[in-house]
Every structure is written in C-alpha cells, then in structure tokens.
Amino acid sequence: MTIQFSTKVLSEIDFKSPKAAAAICALPSDCLVLAYRDTELNQLQALDDLLGGVIAQAKSLGDLDGKAGVCTLLRSGQSWALSKVKLKRVLLVGLGDQDSLIDFAKVVRSAVKNMSGSPIESVLWHMASFMGKQKANQSPAVLLERIRLLAQIMGDQVYRFGVRQAQFKTKPTEKADSLKQVTLITNTNQSSSVKMAIREGAALVEGMNLTKDLGNLPPNVCTPTFLAHTAQNLSKKSSLKVQVLGEKQIEALGMGSFLAVAKGSETPPQFIIMRHDGGKPNEEPIVLVGKGITFDTGGISLKPGEAMDEMKYDMCGAASVFGTMHAVSLLNLKKNVIGVVPTCENMPSGRATRPGDIVKSMSGQTIEILNTDAEGRLILCDALTYVERFKPKAVIDIATLTGACIIALGHVHSGLFSDDETLVKDLSKAGHQSLDTVWRLPLDAAYHEQLKSNFADMANIGGRPAGSVTAACFLSRFAEKFRWAHLDIAGTAWKSGAAKGATGRPVPLLLNYLLDQ
Ligand code: BES
Ligand code: MN
Ligand code: ZN
C-alpha cells in the first residue's frame, strides 16, 4: 500500500567506467530510473554497451530529445538478456536544462506517473542523475532536501483513497499503484544522513496519507468523536500522549465561543490534545492548533447549497495536525511538540447560535456573533487561550478559515499571517523546501477597525474587504502571550473538480519546519 524506501550505496555510480556500469546492472530490479541531459548522453556509453546499444538506437530514432520530464522506456529482451544485466527495464527521463527544485519535482512526478499503471513494483532510483547541475555543487543539504521531496512526491502520486478506504463503494474501482519499493542508489560518504532523509520522507508520506484520509472521509463518518478516537488509537501505537476533553470539561474551562459553534449540532464537541515529549522535560514546546469543523453548513447564516459537500474538508487544519504529529512521532523527533484540535460541527437547529448572540470567550473577551458562518475563528480563539498553559516556544494555527483567502492566493500558496519575523522566515523557508509554499499577508492595526462592535468587545466578522486579514486579526487578539503564526489553508488543503480530494498540505511545510528547528 505504501512505498518502502531504502538505499544502496555503491562506491562508483556514474556510467563512465564499465565496472561501475556493470555493478549497477547487476542489481536485480524491475526498472532502473535514470535522468539524462541530451547533451550528455555519450556519458552513458558503458551502460549502453551492456544494454546492447538500445540507447544509441533510441537516440537515432529521435526518442531521446531530453525535454524535461519526457520518459523513454527500454526493456530487456529487445537487446539485453537478463543474465549479466539484471535490470528488466531502464526508464530514461529527460532533465531539460532547468535546474530548480520545482523542475526537479516536475521531472520526478512525470517519471512516477509514467510508471503508474505498469507492472513495475521495484525501482532503482539513480539519485545523482536527478541532481543535474547541482551534482557539481555537491552540497549535502541540497541532496537531502531533494530526497525528502522525492519521497513526498512519490507518496503523493500513489495515494488512492478508494484503496485505503475501500468500504464506500460496493464495487471498488481504484487499484493500488504497483510501485512498492524504491531503492536509491547513491555514492555519498554521507550515507547515514541519506538514510535519515529517506526516513523523514517516508514518515512525511505516512503523515500526509493520514491527513488525506481524514479529509476525504465523509462527514457522517469523520465526526468529532471519530477524530477523538483516531487520536486515541494513534496514542496506542506511538509516543503520542492523548487527552480528550468532552463537552462538560469544555464548559468548565469557559470556552463560551467554541461552545456557541457546537450548540446547533446533535454531535458533541471534542477538544483533543496530542503530546509528543521528545525533547527535554523543561524545553518549551511548539504547539500546532488545527481547525476541526467536521462539517460547516454555516449554521443559521446558512451557506448556499452548491458544492456544500466540500465543507467536509473544513477539518483539514485538524487533519494536518494529526498528520504532522503522526510523522513527528514516527521519527521520534527530539523535540516537544503538542497538537491541539478543537472539533465540532457547525449546524443550524432550534438550539443553534443566532446572528446577534453575544458570547464570552475563555480569555474573558466578549464576541458579538454577527455571522454564524465565521465559526472557525470562534473555535480557534478558545483553543489559542487554552494553549497559553504550555508556555509555548511558538504556536502555529492551521485553518480552512476564509473563502477570501482563495480569492487572494488561489490554490498555490497558503496564507501566512504573523508579526514574528523569525517565524515568517522559518515557515517561508520550510515552504520553499517542500514546495508547500506560503505567502505573507498583513495584520496591521488598521484592519482591526473592521472588527468593532457596538455591543461587545468585538464582532466575529469584519465585512467583505480583506476577509482573510480581518479573520487573522480576530485570532491575533487571542495570541498575545506567545510567538504566533496563522496559516489559512482554504485554497490549498483540497482540490475540487474531477480530481476532488485532500492534498495533504500543509503537512510537508509543517514537518520541514519542525525538522529544521
Ligand atoms: N470554512 C469556511 C471558509 C471556506 C469557504 C473555506 C470556502 C474553503 C472554501 C469558513 O468557515 C467560512 O465560512 N468563512 C466565511 C467567513 C465570512 C462569513 C466572514 C467565508 O469565507 O465566506
Ligand atoms: Mn463557515
Ligand atoms: Zn468553516
């Protein structure tokens, strides 16, 4: 179901010497995946000699033009027998002439797509050939970053909800991807850090898979209670210590804002705390807070019907906290990390909160709820107050908070809001590394004007202009006691249309951030 990653360290891995070429060809595999530049094809001469000249032949037929991501599959039997050469296939992947991380990702994705649906189960991945000009660079950091990303892209490509959760179709239509085993061939003297990067990549994939599963599950299955059970099950098999607070305890804490959202639903709210105590006992933790609205109807400020099913994804912030905590615990990260998830449904009913209701948050600040559809900030604000008790080093909240964020940034970057320059720098860097990028939006005092209420300390909406900014400004009023950043993932957590499904973002960003701290 998931890919197994491993490494094979060889003393020599280029194909210039016949000996090195023979050593690689002696490794049994369904497919050797090799990237090339058309100008450097002559460097594959020793390999081609062993393969009986298929590369030269393909070149003369015009099949090896070297365009980025264009794949050419060579098979045994055509010209090499499986005696000395144990490779059943060789996939040649054009590198083009670009060399950025984005280009690397494109080339890798197209190679994996090319094999998808074929019988190829095990591949030898010739890592150095994918480094392009970076090969000369020889920076270990670049190599490790690319290995992590390689695993991330492969895991992403082979994810199949219908295979992992086959209970929803009477006749399942999806088939598991055949790709099961990836062995990286490297010649680095840093084999231990390469192994580590592979472990990190594999844990990231596990985390993303969990995040996608939770996001994709239907809202009648993935309820607040289900999320609580998921956390408890994770704790049985891992380092995670889990605590779940029920309605009574949430009430006793004074979370009047959170409860105002939960009130309209038959399903009780849950407040989930997951701790990974991998650091020193007195070390300040990094805290992740995820919005866990398992379905957002808008409440009495009911949403229009079109595409309302997609509001099952309104717990993707929570799902990303689950996925990141899962990965952190698999890696046994030597850090204290705490995941916090306030979760409930936002439903209309005779008991639901009305527009105009005033509630008191756990912080003591009162809120006039002018629109019950601006519910994310109402559950997050109490969670932010709650996490003060951990004396956090930093708090990052993650939420599918505003439709306005999709208007501002589309489906490319997540919105990043923070007044802490170090957090902004570190999160932006982690975003670039994992291609799970963020774009900073403002939090200026001027926007706070829009949150004024005639009747309470603040209103829960700031009108149409800069809707994502006023939502973030609202949250900032509950985050004054620690370093804080807010990620609005409304545009990045899932895809609509034919490829409808959770993306697993921003788990790559969060895990890369935590790994680099
Ligand atoms: N969960 C939504 C935000 C959302 C909408 C995410 C569409 C992804 C796609 C959030 O709870 C919401 O309804 N926000 C309102 C806020 C408004 C009432 C101020 C919105 O964005 O319209
Ligand atoms: Mn809403
Ligand atoms: Zn919502």
Structural overview:
The chain has 517 residues and is of the alpha/beta class. It folds into two domains: 4-189, 3-Layer(aba) Sandwich (Leucine Aminopeptidase, subunit E, domain 1), CATH 3.40.220.10; 212-516, 3-Layer(aba) Sandwich (Aminopeptidase). Helices cover 36% and strands 19% of the residues. Strands 7, 8, 9, 10, 11, 14, 15, 16 and 18 form a nine-stranded mixed beta sheet that branches. The longest helix has 26 residues, at 191-216. It is elongated. The two termini are 31 Å apart. The relative contact order is 0.10. The structure holds ligand BES, manganese (II) ion (MN) and zinc ion. Manganese (II) ion binds at residues 296, 298, 346, 373, 375.
Give the DSSP E fraction (strand runs of 2 or more residues): 15-25%
The global form is elongated
Q: What's the CATH architecture of the largest domain? A: 3-Layer(aba) Sandwich
**Any idea what the CATH superfamily of the largest domain is called?**
Zn peptidases
- Count of beta strands: 20
CATH class of the largest domain: Alpha Beta
**Over all CA atoms, what is the radius of gyration?**
25 Å
Structural class: alpha/beta
- Helix coverage percent of residues? 25-40%
Total DSSP helices: 18
- Ions and ligands: ligand BES, manganese (II) ion, zinc ion
Number of individual domains: 2
Mean pLDDT figure: 96
Low-confidence stretches: none
Largest sheet: 9 strands, mixed
